């Protein structure tokens, strides 16, 4: 059994990691850390886990074989520097500390977009889990980038649920404000843009075009829908495009191409990413949907852990979607 | 023109008062107070008022003819004791300081349930505006109480929207928590129970039965639906009951009896209260719906102001419902 | 491997059965029937199953070891009379045809409230799965009934999500109507009342009190929250009550007692039922929550199938809740 | 008093017209037509109007001074050809029959985008009310077009509420589907594109760039948020742009420029349009919000009627927003 610590187990992604790992047959969930709630039962915070998890929050990191960091952005590096963790312990960081520059001492964090960097992840002790927008958008554009077709600007609007903003209280996550409301934030300058640009240039053999991204806040809790279009060579007809994407993701249990238009709830509460392609004149239009907390965070983290330990990548990730 | 001050103009009820009063033809909205935002424009807080209201928050009470107190519960009495207000200024308190015991120096606050105490309100300088649950439930039961038919226990569940909890941030008004969620709070001991009991006993010639009330928190922003049943004399058939209620509210522009079943949105963004009656065996079942911020707060406050100043009670209150 | 047929696989409960059974290790899902969509892929209807289920709808019942009937109320009996099914095939009916009177030829349907009739279910070939409201309310009141404490009237309001009304289109499930709306339907006369009354009298050694139930339609998709109170003997203090309930459900992996107040989403997308008890004067107040499509339908059906086949009752039912 | 007929008064826009016109001091609402519900009370369909409107549906057009056509797209022309209406009667068509080609016999329909064609509307007997997306997007881009700055492609995503799809039942307006869901429809080919292109070219002195528009379906009932960017001359700095827009709409009671970012609910249940501008590199980014049923339909129709009759254009349109 793989002994697991989740550092920062009180937040949304921490909670999702627990929900996934209590049903993972190869895992023993042992240490769930919190700074403020040491000694409290897990279900006092994650109330839906009543009857399913009898652990308590601790301030010990313990002696894990795998360590998940769900600490909030900018905290992981400091944590790792201070913490006394075995040099054998595999680490998956869900923050953004190591996504752009993976250097950590003599080692490096692999960028954990499971479908693009499977080999590298499987050989790494350290993995930086991608951001949620970055996951949805990079999966949608990577086949084009790899084929050298992503030379023009991409035009993206991507709408996210409230859980993307985490658990802390704020005016824009107040129910009375958010319900029935839609807004735009950080247009053209979301922090995931660098991540997306980085990855797509890495998999492309030529410089990719500029990525324009307008993030939107939706009045739902879970999920990201990204709507993307970019101009591509007229010779790439729909059939060729569908072949390109189908082949690219044929080995993935989680990424699928839909012939029909897709809607966000088709992936909510699953680790899947669904893509839909259409050609409109000079543009290819791609719709990409994920659950921001699963394929966009905790689910992909567990997927990466599975890969790092040589387990089937969908172990404990065949989830019943909520569908409605 | 009646010069108006709203003390506490930054909250939800303060905002609703502004939205109503900027379109009131007999009113000049002059002083909108805030402790923390003095000098800021009204629309910086109530963003939907951009282009409709160019006032700024002030810390002056001014010299109003009418003063609305939207200060939060327990603050009004202290405010009035300190504030230098003309003894001619009419005061409508939207807090709960004077609802149960209206005494204030030598004067008394009238209880501002407009349909029950019209005469008293019209002759009062001081009015305590009822609570939202109290309004929905008391309107539903008052005709029975007045007819001496409310001798048995009442069984009530009443569900409220998130705006009932005000603007302050908290776990149960976080969108990620509240969306798609339902919960119960303060069963059998909501603070409005005393208010309801007080009023119904006052209008009844006999001791009324016990009021059992379970408040519920709904996943919507506006409105209260109260579902009430109580055992009544078998001789009161439906026809007699409908006559009783129809006559009771025949003079009201806002309270109506629906022959068909009703749903909450039929009153949202209006000052109306709709009632629906059915008999089931020994019980009469009453559904009562209001908008908690309007008939349950700011709307009724303006209705009371109209009555106090001898204006038609629906002045500035013929509102377009949102309907959807 | 247990070969399974789902008759009526296009509806909401049919879809949920598929979502559960594709991950059941002892099951081979073979025949999914539809009258109108024969030959279409499952994922053309249940779009979230893209990449997870490659079966097609058929009009063949096949030769199943277990047959789930998800046909709509009043259709199951006729279906069974016509269908050529082996007399060995175990049948779980999710309609209401056999809930009150389980007789079918020489055999009888067991009433499939798993926690109350485990033995009977495990020995039955035929099981009638309970209604969703019936499940939530009966689980809440059964310990009192069994202890002979349910002699007084019960006062119940129970709010349900839109999926309770099924897939067919109607005015009250139109999004523009339902969003932000609350209404009451069938007060005092919901069809599940007879089922509840029947079961509680059966487990009680004395005649139980009258059950008053007001169903409410909520503006969410999944879940039922029932709020119940009834007068009980003053000698039963909270400690005794908590002991009573805790012991009653100590063997169940799905029914748990919460010391803290509960909210609906704590069970959404799981097969759990959570109960919370409080005493208020002469009344005990019970809150009971389930997911109407899982513990209230498809989940309990699979639980019953597990029991009927001697499998652990939580096989394929350790579901990750959606939580948010 | 202006006598008014609404042809097609049972739908969403018909209902909104009634809600607006019952409070219009210069209007007498006389004939509300329906084909199927003749004789039924208005409030039997528009249930929120109970106590506010005692009219009944009729099949008579009557002898109106103003006729609103809320008949559904493609029906208005046929209706006008058949109907015996006085040649003095002013007509406002809310369908799309006359938006692109306004010819009707010897006369022409003016295109009723009130802020752009005020003079023409005020001199017309016939007005074609714009589409909802067209209103939101054209108001956002018209100042650029008029200034000859709209020469490059525009990139638009615009999300709409469920009421945009009307009252008829369908899978994508079923609550169980729509709640918490987001989808894309008719990318690059929404029927309003021609309308937008037409209008912008008309007000521009040079050929405008191509308009790329991705419509999205949101999980809310009311409102459209359009997010638009286009490349403009670097010499146009923010200050110049803000001046351009502020001046353009300085005379309008409904169109306002917000310095702060905006969110959809700031206009819900009002006739306002709010715009927000930002410059990001070579692009200007514009957010535009309206209530699709008001400024996007019934509200603008009443605004146009006011203009046609020489009344203040905001008569009966100073609406209390729902805000929450």
Overall description:
4 copies of one chain form a homotetramer. The first copy, chain A, has helices at residues 12-21, 42-45, 76-82, 118-122, 132-146, 175-178, 192-203, 238-248, 298-308; strands at 2-7, 27-33, 57-58, 66-69, 90-93, 103-104, 107-108, 110-111, 126-128, 154-160, 183-184, 211-217, 224-231, 255-257, 273-280, 283-290. Chain A is α/β, with parallel strands linked by helices. Chain A has 2 domains: 2-129 and 297-308, 3-Layer(aba) Sandwich (Rossmann fold); 132-290, 2-Layer Sandwich (Dihydrodipicolinate Reductase, domain 2). In chain A, strands 3-2-1-4-5-9-8 form a 7-stranded parallel sheet, covered by helices on one side. A 7-stranded mixed sheet of chain A has the order 11-12-10-13-16-15-14. In chain A, strands 6-7 form a two-stranded antiparallel ribbon. Chain B binds chain D through residues 12, 15-16, 19-20, 23, 44, 46-52, 162-163, 179-180, 221-222, 253-254, 256, 258, 260, 262-263, 265-270, 272, 274, 293, 318-324, and chain D through 12, 15-16, 19-20, 23, 44, 46-52, 162-163, 179-180, 221-222, 253-254, 256, 258, 260, 262-263, 265-270, 272, 274, 293, 318-324.
